[in-house]
Amino acid sequence: MAEIKIANINDIKEGRMFYVKVNGKNAFITKINGKYYCMEGDCTHEMGPLWEGILEGKIVTCPWHGAEFDVTTGKVVLPPATENKKIYQVKVKDNDLFIIV
Hints:
Layout: E1 3-8, E2 17-22, E3 25-32, E4 35-40, E5 54-56, E6 59-61, E7 68-70, E8 76-78, E9 87-93, E10 96-100
Antiparallel strand pairs: 1-10, 2-3, 3-4, 4-9, 5-6, 6-7, 7-8, 9-10
């Protein structure tokens, strides 16, 4: 497994989504209750940009058709999406954030 630096902790604000690329794929990182989460960023319904959606608590809503995902697990919580999203493990080193791939 490899670690990829994706952001500085100062870039990530509580309850906000920060767009990143992971191995050429869209993703986003967020901070919820002081913990960092990184999830693939394209909705599994019609590839809508989840990082442009609305994040309420740990649920992100796709801006295109309203599918909802839990950013802590990647699981679909509301259709029309039916496939879960990949979650990346986030590691904090000093002031930098890395994901494990």
